[in-house]
Design brief:
The chain is of the alpha/beta class. The chain contains 11 helices and 10 strands. The structure holds ligand T3D.
């Protein structure tokens, strides 16, 4: 099984599972990942998503043996059919997506981690824009997210030089949210995803929508977006529950509706 997909406590957990090749993506894994993400979108039980890897790596990007295999998927279809849909699904799902980077994240693996909503990493993990070393350009949204996260100069240098960025440095650069001890990553990331899953996830989904649009909008347009989405959030069950629970001095029970 190239991925392991489970649903527990409101969290759809996708574990990349080709540890012998550092969870690099072949076509089967890319399509299985997309299918799990689609299940997370349509299944109302899933209120948050957690992405991680098995073994010592998070993901080493494209499986290079498959990429040069004449019987493998044609070069031009790899980005179009594998990585672009994955990044679109991560950004389009109106539920929080947590990424737990458990080891090296290289190439498309690094950029998938950067496209997630909240990325935490084990202290021993690292991020490498490995593309330049083999004559490719960064894909999987890397040229979109990395300059926005760390600034144009740093992104350019990281992409051209392919330097390895340690997890703690990735936090300092603003690439990811948080680093934690290796042995705590699984527990911390599950706890984070489960916490999000219990929150007013309709509102979190709308927050994500607003953030996506903020990447393109000017202030005036963004204020309009906030007005529209706040109106939707204000009509949600969770908003009423949150306010009632506050006034009644009790814990709210949110439904994601
Ligand atoms: O058409 C297209 O290809 C477009 C799509 C592009 C998307 C991309 O992601 S391009 C970038 C592809 N990825 C890379 O270039 C990274 C290649 N891997 C590495 O540079 C290193 O493996 C790492 C820095 C990630 C980790 O190094 P290290 O020393 O910890 O491990 P290792 O010994 O290099 O790898 C362990 C095994 O995994 C090894 O196999 P073996 O010798 O034990 O049988 C190695 O060949 C295999 N492996 C690692 N990465 C890949 C891989 N096998 C296939 N594809 C890989 N990407």
């Amino acid at each position: 099984m190239s991925i392991i997909f489970t649903i527990e406590n409101g969290v759809g957990k996708i574990t990349l599972n080709r540890p012998e090749v550092l969870n690099s993506f072949n076509r089967e894994m890319a399509l299985a990942f997309q299918s799990a993400m689609r299940e997370c979108i349509s299944n109302q039980v899933v209120r948050a998503v957690l992405i991680t890897g098995s073994g010592r790596a998070f993901c080493a990007g494209q499986d290079l043996a498959e990429a040069i295999d004449p019987a493998g998927p044609p070069m031009d279809s790899i980005v179009r059919e594998h990585y672009n849909p994955i990044i679109r699904l991560i950004r389009e799902i109106e539920k929080p997506v947590v990424c737990a980077v458990n080891g090296v994240a290289a190439g498309a693996g690094a950029n998938i981690a950067l496209a997630c909503d909240i990325t935490i990493a084990a202290a021993s993990s690292s991020f490498i824009q490995a593309f330049s070393k083999i004559g490719l350009i960064p894909d999987s949204g890397g040229t979109f997210f990395l300059p926005r996260l760390v600034g144009f100069q740093r992104a350019t240098a990281l992409m051209m030089l392919g330097d390895k960025v340690k997890a703690a440095d990735a936090v300092a650069l603003g690439m990811i949210y948080k680093v934690c001890d290796d042995e705590n990553l699984n527990a911390e990331s599950v706890k984070l995803a489960e916490t999000l899953a219990m929150m007013p996830t309709r509102g979190l989904g709308l927050t994500k929508k607003a953030l996506n649009l903020s990447l393109f909008n000017n202030l005036d347009d963004q204020l309009d977006v906030e007005e529209k989405l706040q109106t939707q959030a204000g009509q949600s069950y969770d908003y009423r529950e949150g306010v009632n629970a506050f006034l009644e001095k009790r814990q709210p029970i949110f439904k994601g509706e």
